[in-house]
From TrEMBL:
Record carries keyword Membrane: yes
UniProtKB keywords: Membrane, Transmembrane, Transmembrane helix
The UniProt record lists the keyword Membrane: yes
Protein name: EAL domain-containing protein
């Protein structure tokens, strides 16, 4: 293991953690400095209707523009931000920026151009006593209608012990839509979905990978598609929207559409981009719609 490979005085990797222990201690103070220095930016990945390619929503994803290391991916710093608690101010920044930006798109392009904007919420944020008030403030200040905000949570964030976080029920009552992210990867996905006020399930990329493989063996193809099929059936029974994540090819789009997935997200459809990039897509979409009418 990585632990055994480590030598005294060198960076050692803790079991089950994706990053070096020593680096993570530095990362804490680096993150604080980066927050003060305004080094975080939000990019947006389109969520599109698979039949038409039309933009339905966006997911906000944070990026760290490190002065020396360049753009750092959230996989590298979100875990440390959670451990240090810095995810709370960082998450608030993403929340406010996303609401502000989504309200601007709404004002510029009208109510039908973009249905909703989503962002990721970590466990630490969800259990922060001020979280619901932070969300309410961000919505009120931006003027974004509550039902246009989607908060994406993972199964592990939803549960605290055996309890579902109370904040989720409050957010649901406020009309905010909750999405269960990375769906299918957790241990109790199915029972959780029944108990939790979700509006959307996001089929994890791991169930999209390989879904299109055609090796001439229908039984093997059925097995690869089994989770995606089960999830869409469950979502229909519970009247939830579905989004298939991590779509990387047109063949995957075809299989997912056949299974009944209406919405998708992935590099094949569109990569995460700046707010300006989304504005350009919305402008182009408006022209297309007008020329069709
Ligand atoms: P996620 O919420 O599941 O977001 C989807 C991730 O998959 C994003 O990675 C996105 O860029 C990537 N992705 C989208 N389409 C494809 C594809 O076709 N192929 C592949 N290989 N990847 C694709 P990203 O931006 O690196 O974010 C990683 C994770 O970090 C997110 O997973 C989310 O859990 C977390 N994260 C990102 N931004 C935030 C944030 O503002 N707050 C919190 N708490 N977590 C965040
Ligand atoms: Mg997400
Ligand atoms: Mg996801
Ligand atoms: Mg994911």
């Amino acid at each position: 293991t990585a632990k055994q490979q480590g030598k005294a005085g060198f960076v050692r990797y803790a079991e089950g953690m994706g990053e070096p222990v020593l680096a993570h201690m530095q990362l804490g103070s680096e993150l604080r400095r980066a927050l003060d220095n305004n080094e975080f930016r939000v990019v947006y990945q389109p969520i599109v209707r698979l039949g038409t390619g039309r933009l339905i929503g966006v997911e906000a994803l944070v990026r760290w523009h490190h002065p020396a290391r360049g753009v750092v991916s959230p996989a590298e710093f979100i875990p440390a931000a959670e451990r240090t608690g810095l995810i709370v101010p960082l998450g608030r920044l993403v929340l406010r920026e996303t609401c502000r930006q989504a309200a601007m798109w709404l004002a510029d392009f009208g109510p039908d151009a973009l249905r909703e904007a989503g962002l990721n919420v970590s466990a630490r944020q969800l259990h922060d006593p001020d979280f619901v008030a932070d969300v309410a403030d961000a919505l009120a200040e931006s003027g974004l209608p509550n039902e246009r905000l989607v908060l994406e949570v993972t199964e592990s964030a939803v549960l605290r012990g055996q309890q579902i976080s109370r904040a989720l029920f409050e957010l649901d009552r406020m009309g905010i839509r909750l999405a269960l992210d990375d769906f299918g990867t957790g241990e109790s996905s199915l029972s959780l979905l029944r108990a939790f006020p979700a509006a959307i399930v996001k089929l994890d990329k791991s169930f999209v990978d390989g879904i299109e493989i055609d090796d001439g063996n229908p039984a093997a193809a059925d097995a690869r598609q089994a989770v995606a099929r089960a999830v869409i059936q469950l979502a229909r029974a519970l009247s939830l929207d579905t989004v298939a994540e991590g779509i990387e090819s047109p063949e995957q789009v075809a299989v997912l559409r056949e299974l009944g997935y209406a919405l998708g997200q992935g590099y094949h459809l569109a990569e995460p981009m700046s707010a300006d990039g989304i504005s350009r897509l919305l402008a182009r979409q408006a022209i297309t719609v007008r020329s069709v009418i």
